Amino acid sequence: MSLKYKVSGVGTIEIDTLVVDSNGTLTIKGELVSGVMERINRLQSLGVNVVMISSDQRGGARELAGSIGITYYEANNSRAKEDILLSLGSRNVAAIGNARIDIGLFVQSLVSVATLQSEGIHKDIIDHVDVIVPSVNDALDFFLDEDTFIATMKR
Asked: Is the pLDDT of residue 1 over 90?
């Protein structure tokens, strides 16, 4: 299964895999953002494979991924993140992140979303993302709300 959006001026965009970062994205200063688990569970119930690729700067990312039921990969630089994403074997990937290390994810993703939370975003990602939202919950809701997705992505 996957998410399918019929976007005016673009065509059908299909997402079957969502790659997320941990630090500054799913977590703020190491703590899971409230509401994230419920949204990830909803995406998974819709058939989306949610995967975490993180450098695990604060520690605990593997445990966090396990506790919310997603696969975890560790990558210490942008190229490693990109290589892991490519190894997943899907061309219908979306990514959510906030840091320069996420550029490899953004470049290879069909749709990329930056979250501007309290840990900030790196200026270098701006040219590589499709959408910028204020929080990770807004990023997850972007994929869950078809009308929001279409309104933002149409030409």
From this structure: no
